[in-house]
Structures are given as structure tokens and as C-alpha cells.
Amino acid sequence: MVNKIIQLDEGKEARQLIADEGKLLFLAYELDELGSDAQGVSNVIIPMCWDYEQIYIEKSINL
Amino acid sequence: MTLLEQQMIDELIVTQGFTNNLAANLNTKGVPANTNEGLDTLVPKVLLIESGDDKTPYEEWQEGFGYNWDSVVANAPMTNSQRILHIYTKVELLKMISTFPTSAEIYTYNGSVYRKITMDSNKRLSFINADYITNTFDNLQYVCVVYANASWGNAVFETWLPVVYGNSKVVTADALVNLLNTNFVNVYYPTLRGVDVNVLQTVIIFGGLEHLTYQSVYQPLTFRYEGLRNCEIRVLKEVCDTLPSGQTYSTLNNFSEVNVRITDEALADWFYNTWLYTIYAAGTRFGYPVGNYVRKFKVNSAMPLKASATNVPYIRIPNCDYLEGTFTEDQASAFAGLHGFNSNNMRNLKNFPLWTVIGGATTGCLLPATASNGLANFRFWSMQLERSNFALFNNSVIDTDPTKSFVANLPTVLAGSAQTIYFDDTTFKNQFTAGEQAQIVSTITGKNWGLTW
Fold it and tell me: Which chain A residue lies closest to B439 (C-alpha atoms)?
């Protein structure tokens, strides 16, 4: 997982998470709720205050 | 008088002749007109002429029988007055339900002769060639059966029957035998096209039904509907439009199973934006499969979206191009923020949902979810989304008026709940400049939402 800080307007920042190649990022709680139906994303922009390491789980794409 | 003036007068006389003929022809066609009118008013009246060929396929099919079924019922040489007429597709044998009353009188009618038939011990009715009638519209053969009894019990026709038409207008309390009241109508009567009943009580409008008339209405009236298309929605609307003033009705439908497809835009508008709100006056919850579509879905702010203990509050409104109006969340809901605006049925959506702004608030009234929950996330499946009300900019500065855009309307949520907004169309953001995108991301993440776009 790539973790980037992106600069926004007026000096604000956000965090961008980018899944490694062949992987997707899943919200941990959606994995609990939906199991294999959970929708993964290749990247997401999140507030700096999120505890992203607990919130997102990176998983390999099963083709 | 000059030659030119004479020519003009001649032409005016000819024109007045045309005008007089047109006025006369309009009157012949039932459109009021007189010869004092000019062509400027007479010509548009041509559009008021009724085509005269406005019969529905059902009406043409019924005319193909050439019988007045009420008279066929009345003239049947039967003792009992509680009479039911069924038209069946051509069959040699009908197997009635095992509890079908042996006291019933049963006759066939072939257009000129009534023939009494006897149900055998295995509840079977046998027909002969002379029983069949031919419909001159579709050139198919049918068999007409008239049943009579002193009174009818419950569900005596609840079995598979190839019935195409039912008439129970003279049965005093026909709600249980009028073909509209079975829970299995789609299974039992897949060929049914029309019914003329006495009392409407529980009405199941189903795919294939083209005609329904009634004599009176039971209070309360209940509708169920399944597999509806334009024709059946017209039947439903005709029934509802003719109900007595003050008549209330409800539905027994499980909306997660309802499959309705209406391509007539006006009918879809009536069904989704008028009728459904009528039957759900006490609280609205939708659950439509993806096939349900209406061009504009008019959100009724007077009806808060309220959670249910038995059904997660789930906005699965019909697929639509545009949402009109604002959602109003029950501010005391035990399921705060679980809007469910992430279902895959919103495939055609072009604009974004807004929540009502209450009392001068700086955001819409969507509540922050109290904990992480997938139903609190937004997922926009549509590839048709427009930038129009997602985010607005004034002189390149994002507009914070919560009544105008989705971004400004979003509430601030708990960082710990990790709510996200997800776009399937990753090119949507390209409708905004880089500077606008930065302000959008800043606003969204500033309200603690995550964003994938």
C-alpha cells in the first residue's frame, strides 16, 4: 500500500492510499459485513485523522 | 373596381368556401366550429378530431367473441343466482380443486346453446367439440363455462385454470371467488386478461391483466401487484381513478420483490410519484430491483425516511435520471445515517441526493452514523452523473450553501466511523478543474469522509 500526503487548497492536506499492484483496499468493517461481496478500491483519499491502518485492509485480487 | 381587386374578391370567395367546408366537416366529426371563424382557428381544431380507432387490443379481442357476457350469465337456464362465468382457452378437460362444491350447477355456452355438464367424481369437467366458440379477432377457440351456486365458499377456483376472462358481477360477495384475490394469481391464472367483478377487496394486479371493472368497493381495499408493465399500470390507475371519494387503500407488497417496468413516462410518474406516496402515507420505505425506472423521482420531504426494526432503512428508490426534492431523515432515528444510498439500482442517475436543511443548518439533515456501517457509505454506480449539483463554484471558490450541492449538503461525520463516497465512474472528477477538485477533496475530507473517484 502506498501512502501519500496530498496538498489541497489553503494549506490543507489529505491522505491518499493506493493499493499495490494486484491488490485492493477493503474497508475492514465492510469485509465483516459483506464477506466476499465487499467492494475493494484501488485508491482512496481520506482525512488525515483516520486511523487508516486499522480501517483499511489490503488484499490480493482473486481472479 | 380594378381587375386586381376583382381577383382578390374571387379568391376570398373561394377561400370562404374552403372555410365553410372545413367548419362543416369539423362539426360532422364532433368538433364545434362555425363559418365565422378564420382558418387560423379552424385548422388547429383538426387535432381535436378523435381518431375513432382507439380500441385497445383487449376490447378488440372481446368484440371477437361477439357476446354480452352479462346476458349470457343472466340467460343461463340455472336455478341458483350466484353465477360466475369463465372463458377458458380450448381444453378438453378441466380439473377443478378437490373441494369444489358438488352443489354447483355447471353449463357451457357455445353462442347459441347452453349445455349442462356434470363434474365427475374426480372433479373433472369434460367438453365436446360443440362447446367451443371461436373468437373472430384472434381466430382461436375458447370454451365458456357458467357456474352457479346458492353461495360460494372460499378459494373454490384457486387451482391452475386456463381462464382468460372472468365475470362475477352478480355474485353478492365475490371477493373470494373473483380471480383477483388468490395469493397465487400469477401461478394459477397465467392466461387471465380481464375480469368484471362485483366487489373489490383484495386486488392483485399482475402481469397480463388488461381489464378490470367493479361494481362496488370494500373498505379497506388492499392492492398487491406483481410483474407490472404499462398495460397493467393503466388498469391500476383506472381503478384508482374511479374509486369512491374517501376510499382508502393499502398494499401487501413486499417491495424487495416488486418488479415493475413502465416505459410510459406519464404512467411511471403517476405510479412512483403519486400512487406510492398515497399507499405509504404512514411512512415510506422503498426496495425496488434495478428494473424499476422513472425519469424523475420526486422525493417527498413530508415523509421522513424512518428506520424499521425488521427492515434496514434502505433507500432503494426506483432507478431514475433525476432526483427532485430533498430527503428528510428522521432526526430521532435509531439507525442514524444509514441511508443506503449505495444500491446498484441507481444506474441512470444524473444528479446527486440532497437532504433537507433544517432550521438554517450549515448541512443537510443526514445524520452521522454512530458507528461504521456499509449502509452509511455512498456509492454512485451511475455513469451518467453530471457535475450540476455535486459541487458549485462561484468565481472558482466552492459554494458552501447546503441547499445547492451534494458536497455542501454533506454532514460532518465521525472520523472513527470511516464513511466513504465511492464513484464507479472514475472519470466523473474530470468534469472539474484541478483547482475545483482540490477544493472538493478538501471539503469532503474536512467533513471526515473518505473519497474514491
Answer: A9
Residue B362 in any domain: the answer is yes
Pairing of strands B82-89, B163-167: antiparallel
Q: Which domain holds residue B12?
A: 3-52
B291 located within any domain: yes
> In this complex, is the C-beta atom of A39 within 8 Å of any C-beta atom belonging to chain B?
yes
Residue ranges for chain B with pLDDT beneath 70 = 50-53, 182-186, 252-258, 280-290, 303-316
Q: How many domains does chain A have?
A: 1
Per the listing, cell 454512530 goes with B370
A43 vs B contacts (CB less than 8 Å) = 452
Number of Cβ pairs closer than 8 Å across A and B?
Answer: 66
- Residue B375 falls inside a structural domain: yes
User: For B375, which residue in chain A has the nearest alpha carbon?
Assistant: A30
> In the predicted model, is pLDDT for residue A17 greater than 70?
yes
Q: Helix or strand or coil: residue B209?
A: coil
Q: Report the DSSP beta bridge partners of residue A27.
A: A56
Question: Is B363 domain-assigned?
Answer: yes
**pLDDT, tens only, B236-289:** 899 889 988 888 877 766 555 567 888 888 998 998 888 877 776 554 455 666
CA distance A33 to chain B (A): 7
Question: How much is the pTM?
Answer: 0.74
